[in-house]
From TrEMBL:
<dbReference type="InterPro" id="IPR004878">
    <property type="entry name" value="Otopetrin"/>
</dbReference>
<feature type="transmembrane region" description="Helical">
    <location>
        <begin position="88"/>
        <end position="108"/>
    </location>
</feature>
<protein>
    <submittedName>
        <fullName>OTOP3 protein</fullName>
    </submittedName>
</protein>
<feature type="transmembrane region" description="Helical">
    <location>
        <begin position="128"/>
        <end position="151"/>
    </location>
</feature>
<feature type="transmembrane region" description="Helical">
    <location>
        <begin position="392"/>
        <end position="414"/>
    </location>
</feature>
<keyword id="KW-0813">Transport</keyword>
<feature type="transmembrane region" description="Helical">
    <location>
        <begin position="163"/>
        <end position="181"/>
    </location>
</feature>
<feature type="transmembrane region" description="Helical">
    <location>
        <begin position="540"/>
        <end position="560"/>
    </location>
</feature>
<dbReference type="GO" id="GO:0015252">
    <property type="term" value="F:proton channel activity"/>
</dbReference>
<feature type="transmembrane region" description="Helical">
    <location>
        <begin position="354"/>
        <end position="372"/>
    </location>
</feature>
<keyword id="KW-1003">Cell membrane</keyword>
<feature type="transmembrane region" description="Helical">
    <location>
        <begin position="56"/>
        <end position="82"/>
    </location>
</feature>
<keyword id="KW-0407">Ion channel</keyword>
<feature type="transmembrane region" description="Helical">
    <location>
        <begin position="193"/>
        <end position="213"/>
    </location>
</feature>
<feature type="transmembrane region" description="Helical">
    <location>
        <begin position="268"/>
        <end position="289"/>
    </location>
</feature>
<comment type="similarity">
    <text>Belongs to the otopetrin family.</text>
</comment>
<keyword id="KW-0472">Membrane</keyword>
Amino acid sequence: MAGNKVSSQKPCHHCKSRSASAPPDASTIHYEKFWLYRHCSSVQQRDRQAQKAGQLFSGLLAMNVVFLGSAFVSSMIFNHVAITLADVWILLSILKVLCLCWIIYYLLGTSRQPHAVLYRDSHAGPIWIRGSVLLFGSFSILLNVFQIGYSAILIQCKSRVEIVFPSIEILFICTQAFFLWHHSKDCIQVQHNLTRCGLMLTIATNLLLWLLAVTNDTIHMEIESQLREVEQRFAGKAPFSHPYLCNETALCTCPNTTICKVFQKGYILLYPFNTEYCLVCCSVLYVMWKNVGRRISHHHVPHIKPKFKLQGVVFGPLLGATAVIIGICVFMMYQIQATSSAPNHQVFVMYYSYYIVLLPLMSVGAVIGTIIHALEKRELDTLKNPTRSLDVILLMGAALGQIGMSYFSIVAIVATDPRDLLNSLILSYSVLLIFQNITQNVFIIDGLHRQPFISPGREEEMKEEQNHEAYDQRRVSMLELGQEIRKVSRSYLHSYSHLSWKRRALREISFFLVLCNIILWVMPTFGAHPVFENGLEKSFYGYSTWFAIVNFGLPLGVFYRMHSVGGLLEVYVTA
C-alpha cells in the first residue's frame, strides 16, 4: 500500500536535496498501488486510482475522528455531568500522542528514505504562513504555561488533568511547528497511504482543538456576561435574564495575589491565538495532504520568484498606518469602558462609526484594484496549485462568518426600530461589512490567479543572481563586490522609475488593505465584541440562539482577517 518502486536501480541518498527544477529520472518514481486496483493494465492508471482511494480512506478516517470528538464536545456542553471537560481532554490527549508518534516517524523514517522527497511545492508553506505557525504557536505555548501556573495555584480545587493536558499540548505544538516549518513543501513519494492517514489524523486533531477552544472561549464570555448582569442587578438595573448560572465559579476563585492575577489575565489575553494556530496548521497540513504522491512537471516549476520589496508605495502605508492608529485608540477606549463597567451608548456609537468610515474605503480600494486587474495584460496562471485552491476556499468559507452574522443583525434591526441612532449605525455597519467582504474576496482571488509581473530591471537582477550562483565557489575581490552592488542598485532604481501607474496603484491598494485587515483582526481578537454586548440581537433572538450565532461567526471572522493579510501580501508581491 505504501508504493511500488519501478526499478531496482541503486538508490541515491542525496535525492532529498535535489533541486525542484531538476526533474528526477523515471526510475526513481514510486508509483502507488492499492489492492482494489491491482489488476489495472496501466501503471499510470493504477497509480491514479490508488491515489484517489488513499485520499478517500484517509478522508473517512478524519471524518470519523472529527465526528467522535464533536460528539464528546457537544455532550460536555449539553450534559456536563455525564461527559466532563476532563473526558474531552483525555480523548484529545490520546489523539495528540498518536499524532506525535506519526510526526516523529515521518521526521526520522519516511522523509529520510531514498527518493522520498523528489519534488517540493514552491507555492506551499510561504514564509508568512510558516511565520504565523511560529508566532501563534509561541503564544499558544505561553498560554498553556499560564494555564499550568493558574491550575497549580488552585490545585486544591482543580483536577490534575488540567496540568497534564497543557503539558502534552506544549509538546504537541513544538513538534508540529518544527514539522511544518521544515516539511510543509514536501511532495512525499513513499509510504503514501500512511502519510495521508497521519496528515488527516493531525488535521482532525487540530480541528477538535479549535472546536474545544471556541466553545471554551464562548463559555468564558458567557460567564463574564452573566457576572456583569449580576453586577447590574445589584446596581438596581434590569438585566437580560437567562437560566444559565455558573455556580462553580464561586467554588474556585483566584486568590488575591499578583502571580495568580497575571496567570489569569495572561490566559484570557492569549486565548484567541490558540484558535488561530489550529486553523493555520489545518490549512498547511491540508496542502501537504494534497501534495502526497504529487509529481511536479519541470515546466510547472517557477523560475522567477518575486520578492517582497517596499518600493513604489507611499499613500497606502500612510493611510493604512492612520487607520491602524485611530483603530487602536478606538479599541482602547472601548476596552476601558467594557472592563470598568457595562459599555455605554457613546462607546458603541464611536466603535461602529469607525467601521462605517473604514469599510467603504476598503471596498472602494478593492473595486479599483479589481478594475485595474481587468485592464492589465498579465496572463492568468492556470497551472494546478493546491495552495491557491485552498486559499480561495478558506477566503470564501471564512467570510461566511461575518456575512452570516451581518444578515442576522439586519433582520433583527429592521424588525425592531431601524430609526434609532445606534440601530441605524449597526444596520449600516452590517450592510457595509457584507459588501466589503465580497469586494475584497474578488480582488484577492483575481490577484492570486495572475502571473507575477517581472520588470526588465528585475530580470537583469535575476541574471546577476544566477551568474553569482554559478560562480559561487570562486573568490571575489572588493572591487568586484562593489561593481555587483552598483549593478543591483542601478536595477532597483530602474525598476522603481519604470513602475506603471497600474502597478503602483495595485501596490498602494494592497498595502492599505493589509494594514486595515490587521487592525480589524486585532480588535475582535483581543476582546472587542460589540455584536454580543450591545444587547440588540441578544434580546431579539434570545440569549442561547444569538450566542450560538456569535460562536460560529466570530472565530471565522477573525480567521478571515488574518488569512486576508496573507492573500493581500501575495497580490502585493506579484504586482
